[in-house]
Design brief:
The complex is a heterodimer of chains A (487) and B (490). Chain A folds into three domains: 4-294, no CATH class; 307-417, no CATH class; 426-485, Orthogonal Bundle (Arc Repressor Mutant, subunit A). Chain A contains 15 helices and 16 strands. Chain A has helices at residues 56-68, 165-182, 224-245, 293-300, 307-318, 322-328, 332-343, 348-365, 377-388, 394-407, 411-417, 426-439, 441-449, 454-468, 475-485, and strands at 4-17, 76-77, 80-83, 93-96, 106-111, 117-129, 133-135, 143-145, 152-158, 194-206, 209-212, 216-218, 255-260, 265-270, 281-282, 289-290. In chain A, a hairpin with a 7-residue loop joins strand 7 (133-135) and strand 8 (143-145). The longest helix of chain A is centred in the middle third of the chain and has 22 residues, at 224-245. By secondary structure, chain B is an alpha/beta fold. Chain B has two domains: 3-265 and 396-483, Amidase signature (AS) enzymes (Alpha-Beta Complex); 304-382, no CATH class. Chain B has 16 helices and eleven strands. Chain B has an eleven-stranded mixed sheet with strand order 1-3-2-4-6-5-10-11-9-7-8, sandwiched between helices. Chain B is globular and about 60 Å long. Classes of the chains: A alpha+beta (487), B alpha/beta (490). Chain A binds chain B through residues 42, 45-54, 81, 83, 85, 87, 90-93, 142, 144, 277, 279-281, 284-287, and chain B through 82-83, 89, 91, 96, 99, 101-103, 105, 200-205, 207-209, 235-239, 317-318, 320-321, 324-325, 327, 329-331, 341, 345, 365, 368-370, 373, 377.
């Protein structure tokens, strides 16, 4: 074993469901959880004589995604029929894009665990319609639900540039963040809005000799966890298989595997890659799509700063930690809120703390996003300013933010109402300090004497002052007075 | 004159004037169907109750002085390739024998909006694949001029119904000549509009890039009337042409005005393939135009010889995909002998599709298969472009082309069923027009020695149907072939 090293090679196919108002080629609304076959029409049922009509919004969403993934958008693209028979495919062909995909090649930047980023090449991005669902409920028959048939999907194919389960996951998460930022997909994993198919194999180096294991494609993964674990599993399985059988990649020995969530293992579905002949040809029912420069410019103008760029900017410009910047850029509305608050004059770090420690926690508890809390960015900026100016303490700031969410009142009002304004009047505080020093002469002497006990005695005195002021004394001012008096 | 001998226009005007009721005309048609159709076999289904009810409603509207549509009260037959939300839509196939469409084709909607009376749905070659209507999986149709002969196809039911005056006009569909060739066999007018002129929504697809719906009528004016109703852009059909690019019009306006300085193009070498009687009739028709002041120019159409080959690759390739949906899973015929879902596919299709449909699915599947795609499908597309170019160049020198609609007159039933290649050649004068996407019409221009009708085919550039109809009307106005009716049926 010791003379054996290996490199993991993974390419990923991702299907992203676009959140258009209607299906890809008909005017049925997109569906989730409705009664079976209730969101269908002659077109998505594939009835005789029905004809598809392209959904322009879906094309524009795909163009937006292509631009975000640095994929040139094809000037001329078309629709092709991909033929195969399956009960959930009503026409027995799927309308897809074959030799002229809408976008590609391009790339996506993903964050790595060490804080650096990696560029993964995108081979292509194209649009297609989803199939329905076969339902095996009971008995000796199956049923077909075609509500999902015709839903627009963006298929993104990466080059085999990913070198481990963590990277595969990072790409998936980053892509989710991007499509949500662009507003083109809810990317809700629970609803199957993103489905992954990793192609995995290993390049093994043994005693200076290289071996490639047969590629396995794991089908239809719909969670980040399943994606990451299935790749990890495949690495172990392929390594074991190689050590046991010495089997290497040959023409046609790519296999297809499924993921068993219960056993946390991939399961063989097809041993040999079947010689599928999809008999692609241009769909004569649809006209080609010509993307004019004007149209493309219009779409480009809708492009926003991508999450990872934003994250890096927050670290560099605002001095936030990687972690905090990642949290704030997790979704676009949070990041926008943050920037609006910063734009209103608040200190970025202070605002970041308020949002990450209180705002997002409250939003999470209430099952909404930050915007759903009804906070005004400039009110949060004001609150941050009050902390920085010593009007209130940092912990009082957290209390006030929570009260803002609960009452909708202004931070200044709440600071008064909740009695959280700090006493910073040196004259008033000096009297209290004098009293404390009088009552605790021994401790005062310890401070003046210096040495081992000094630090502890000083803290004690400060605490006494805070106690007398019911925590409202500005500790900075009290500290200064103590320093002056106990010199 | 008995009511059934009126043209659609005449009938419409008399109904509007209160001289004839729509119920009367509809009854007359239904009576004739009762009497003649057991012999002719033109209809797959008749809709008497519905037709009479609609007719009654039109009569009521007219009596009440309410506005009515341009086909108000006129009984019309439609080919059973068009989806109707009433009755069945079978495509002449056992696989759809009991299929009920939940929606109406756009053209059906337009006919109904124009207050037409749909009396029934006509027989056809299964999925419009054929040139004699013998490929119907449901019924045999004969030629009203000679009941031992075929009516042509695939719209043979519609043309036979028209010839036997079992309707006042009809709709057909034309993928490779399926309106024009049977129109010529049955001595009626058949028009294939430009591809994109009429919405295909609700037309059960055979070859999607070639299919086009068109009128079948007793006169050129009736064809123009029907086209005016069904033409126009449809947002449900992406391939239907934008009104801004080529507006559909009122094809009756100016129909009787002759085209001044008409230049007719003739491809002599190509026309020489037709039977002598047909060549003679076409020659005489062209002479008639010449006498009326037209100039004749000889045109060269070097690629027409490859049209049949290209057509049978492209049409079957598209058909192999279009017909994949008939699988016994969702609707239509399902085999009772299937043991698993794969057998639901294979046995349903094996048991319910006819021989010609299977043949074309096989041909098309082969043409699209990896390794053969370039040599067949792609090559055929290139030929298609060359043929388009032939027409473009020809139309630089003339207003229209004239040629036979078919190389023969109606042939005997059974004569070509065992020889598919011979049958395919029946389309030699029509398929190129579908490949080029241009409009074409067949109008009656004489009879052969056996008394069988001959059709003159006229072709013009894309979206020039108005001119095409005017040119056809010039000849019709000078001749009376279109007034002859088959004898012996009554």
């Amino acid at each position: 074993m010791s003379d054996l090293t290996y490199k993991v090679i993974v390419g990923l196919e991702i299907h992203v469901q676009l959140n258009t108002r209607t299906k890809m080629f008909c005017s049925c609304a997109l569906s989730f959880g409705e009664e079976a076959n209730s969101r269908v029409c002659p077109v998505c049922l594939g009835l005789p004589g029905a004809l598809p009509v392209m959904n322009r919004q879906a094309v524009e969403y795909a163009m937006l995604a292509a631009l975000a993934l640095d994929c040139p958008v094809a000037e001329f693209t078309k629709w092709d029929r991909k033929s195969y028979y399956y009960p959930d495919l009503p026409k027995n062909y799927q309308i897809s894009q074959y030799d002229l995909p809408l976008g590609g090649p391009g790339s996506i930047e993903i964050p790595l665990e060490d804080g650096t980023t990696k560029k993964v090449r995108i081979r292509r991005a194209h649009l297609e319609e989803d199939a329905g669902k076969n339902v095996h409920a009971a008995g000796s028959f199956s049923q077909v639900d075609l509500n999902r048939a015709g839903t627009p999907l963006l298929e993104i194919v990466t080059e085999p540039d990913l070198n481990g389960p963590e990277q595969v996951r990072a790409l998936a998460v980053e892509l989710q963040r991007i499509v949500r930022y662009l507003g083109i997909s809810e990317a809700d994993m629970q609803k199957g809005h993103m489905r992954f198919e990793p192609n995995v194999n290993l390049v093994i180096d043994r005693a200076g000799q290289q071996f490639k294991t047969p590629i396995a494609e794991v089908k239809n993964l719909n969670s980040f966890r399943a994606l990451e674990r299935s790749v990890a599993y495949e690495i172990r399985r392929q390594l074991d298989d190689f050590l046991e059988t010495g089997r290497t990649m040959q023409m046609g020995n790519k296999s297809t595997r499924g993921w068993n969530d219960v056993h946390e293992a991939t399961v063989l579905q097809r041993e040999k890659e079947e010689a599928h002949d999809y008999r692609y040809f241009p769909d004569p029912d649809l006209v080609p799509v010509v993307t004019t420069r004007q149209w493309l410019d219009e779409i480009r103008s809708r492009l926003c700063e991508l999450p990872l760029q934003r994250q890096v900017r927050y670290v560099q410009a605002y001095g936030l930690s990687e972690y905090d910047a990642g949290v704030l850029t997790g979704d676009r509305s949070t990041a926008d809120f943050f920037e609006q608050a910063v734009g209103s004059g608040g200190d970025p770090k202070r605002i970041c703390n308020l949002l990450t420690q209180v705002g997002l926690k409250l939003a999470n508890e209430r099952g909404r996003d930050l915007l759903g809390l009804g906070l005004e960015p400039n009110a949060v900026a004001t609150l941050a300013g009050m902390i920085d100016q010593g009007v209130i303490s940092a912990s009082a700031g957290n209390t006030i933010l929570q009260a803002m969410v609960e009452t909708g009142k202004k931070p200044e009002t709440l600071a008064q109402e909740l009695n959280l304004v700090q006493k910073s009047d040196a004259g008033e505080l000096e009297g209290i300090v004098d009293q404390v020093l009088k009552e605790n002469a021994a401790a005062a002497a310890d401070v003046v004497a210096g040495g081992k006990k000094s630090q502890k005695a000083r803290g004690f005195l400060l605490g006494q002052v805070m106690q007398k002021t019911k925590g409202q004394a500005n500790p900075k001012v009290v500290s200064e007075i103590l320093n002056r008096k106990l010199r | 004159m008995p009511v059934h001998d009126l043209t659609a226009m005449e009938l419409r005007d008399r109904i509007a004037a209160g001289q004839v009721s729509s119920v009367e005309a509809t009854r007359a048609v239904l009576d004739r169907i009762d009497r003649l159709d057991p012999v002719v076999g033109a209809y797959l289904s008749i809709l008497p109750e519905r037709a009479l009810e609609t007719a009654k409603e039109v009569d009521r509207k007219i009596a009440a002085g309410e506005p009515v549509g341009t086909l108000a009260g006129v009984p019309i037959a439609i080919k059973d390739v068009l989806c109707t939300s009433f009755g069945t839509t079978t495509c002449g196939s056992r696989i759809l024998q009991n299929f009920h469409s939940p929606y109406d084709a756009t053209v059906v909607r337009k006919l109904l909006d124009a207050d037409a009376i749909i009396v029934g749905k006509t027989n056809m070659d299964e999925f419009a694949m054929g040139s004699s209507t013998e490929n119907s999986g449901l019924r045999k149709t004969v030629n009203p001029w000679d009941t031992s002969r075929v009516p042509g196809g695939s719209s043979g039911g519609s043309t036979a119904a028209m010839a036997a005056r079992m309707c006042f006009a009809a709709l057909g569909s034309d993928t490779g000549g399926s309106i024009r060739q049977p129109a010529s066999f049955c001595g009626v007018v058949g028009l294939k509009p430009t591809y994109g002129r009429v919405s295909r929504y609700g037309l059960v697809a055979y070859g999607s890039s070639l299919d086009q719906i068109g009128p079948i009528a007793g006169t050129v004016a009736d064809a123009a009337l029907l086209l005016s109703v069904i033409a126009g852009h449809d947002p449900a059909d992406s391939t239907s042409v934008d009104e801004k690019a080529a507006p559909a019009g009122d094809y009756l306006a100016g129909l009787n005005e002759p085209v001044e300085g008409l230049k007719i193009g003739i491809a002599s070498a190509f026309n020489a393939g037709a039977e002598p009687a047909i060549q003679k009739a076409i020659g005489e028709a062209v002479d008639d135009y010449r006498e009326a002041g037209a100039e004749i120019v000889e045109v060269d159409m070097p690629h027409l010889d490859y049209a049949i080959a290209a057509y049978y690759v492209i049409a079957t390739a598209e058909a192999s995909s279009n017909l994949a949906r008939y699988d016994g899973v969702h609707y239509g015929y399902r085999s009772e002998n299937a043991n698993d879902y794969i057998e639901v596919y294979t046995k349903s299709r094996e048991e319910a599709f006819g021989k010609e449909v299977k043949r074309r699915i096989m041909l098309g599947t082969y043409a699209l298969s990896s390794g053969y795609y370039d040599a067949y499908y792609l090559k055929a597309l290139k030929v298609r472009n060359l043929i388009r170019g032939d027409f473009v160049r020809a139309f630089e020198r003339c207003d229209c082309l004239m040629m036979p609609a078919a190389p023969t007159t109606a042939f005997q039933i059974g004569e070509k069923v065992d020889d598919p290649l011979k049958m395919y050649l029946a389309d030699i004068y029509t398929v190129a027009v579908n490949l080029a996407g241009i409009p074409g019409i067949s109008i009656p221009c004489g009879f052969d020695a056996a008394g069988l009708p001959i059709g003159l085919q006229i072709l013009t550039p894309a979206f020039s149907e108005a001119k095409l109809l005017r040119i056809a009307r010039m000849y019709e106005a000078r001749t009376n072939w279109h007034t002859r009716k088959p004898v012996g049926l009554e």
